[in-house]
């Protein structure tokens, strides 16, 4: 996505189809895949309203970084499948239903003024507080844990660079690294809060095993999905047979009618 042009991305962001759903489920599992598609629906809604492809700030950063000699570009966020799976595991069954319904029913118009308002620190903090109040576990997995992960990755990138020694007797020298981090505004307070802490990311990059309920829901979703596909194929084939049968039947009737006239 970093290398794709805006026009292609704009088109891709607006289109949600069966192929994308199948790919999301294949990569992330049924529940996480369905959640990803719902979030893509939200993204498509915003894209259509604003006429801007998502992730423009990251593409701009990638473009500028490529102009700087010896600059290394790092993808510093936690892998999406881990975030989705941890988020799904953190929600109760009814919270999943509530969240899915909220995402499905999203249709409010969005303007550029609304986007500008979201850049205001006070309003952003208010939105975060509302999210914590309604879905505390979702906020923890999607925001707080990623604050820790992003901070850890930025600190790793900001470590001093060790220079090669001229000889074994000479002491090693190091130079400070110059780092530019491009993150969403909602992550800035968390990064500032975690910067001076000793961070361990092992726990937040592990994926909890699916619960019994998740397995049942996943199986039911698979059966429903493939059942709908199978039923569609059956309806199409039945329709084809009916058309094929109707042709000779019509010819037979015409022949009989012709015999009666003569």
Automatic annotation (TrEMBL):
CDD domains noted in UniProt: TraB_PrgY-like
InterPro entries: TraB/PrgY/GumN_fam (IPR002816), TraB_PrgY-like (IPR046345)
Name of the featured protein: TraB domain-containing protein
Biological classification of the source: Eukaryota, Metazoa, Chordata, Craniata, Vertebrata
């Amino acid at each position: 996505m970093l290398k794709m042009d805006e026009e292609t991305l704009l088109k891709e962001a607006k289109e949600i189809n069966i192929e994308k759903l199948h790919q999301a489920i294949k990569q992330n599992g049924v529940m996480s895949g369905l959640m990803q598609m719902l979030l893509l629906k939200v993204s498509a809604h915003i894209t259509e309203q604003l006429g801007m492809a998502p992730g423009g700030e990251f593409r701009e950063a990638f473009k500028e970084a490529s102009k700087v000699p010896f600059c290394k570009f790092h993808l510093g966020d936690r892998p999406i499948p881990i975030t989705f799976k941890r988020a799904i595991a953190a929600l109760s069954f009814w919270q999943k239903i509530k969240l899915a319904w909220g995402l499905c029913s999203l249709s409010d118009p969005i303007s550029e003024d609304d986007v500008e308002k979201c850049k205001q620190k006070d309003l952003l903090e208010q939105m975060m507080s509302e999210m914590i109040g309604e879905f505390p576990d979702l906020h923890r997995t999607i925001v707080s844990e990623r604050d820790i992960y992003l901070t850890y990755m930025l600190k790793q990138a900001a470590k001093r660079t060790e220079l090669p020694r001229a000889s074994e007797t000479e002491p090693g020298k190091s130079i400070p690294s110059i780092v530019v981090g491009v993150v969403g505004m909602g992550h800035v307070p968390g990064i500032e809060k975690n910067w001076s802490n000793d961070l361990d990311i092992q726990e937040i990059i592990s994926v909890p095993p699916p619960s019994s309920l998740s397995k049942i829901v996943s199986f039911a979703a698979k059966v429903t999905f493939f059942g709908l596909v199978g039923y569609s194929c059956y309806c199409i084939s039945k329709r084809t047979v009916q058309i094929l049968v109707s042709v000779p039947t019509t010819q037979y009737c015409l022949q009989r009618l012709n015999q009666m006239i003569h």
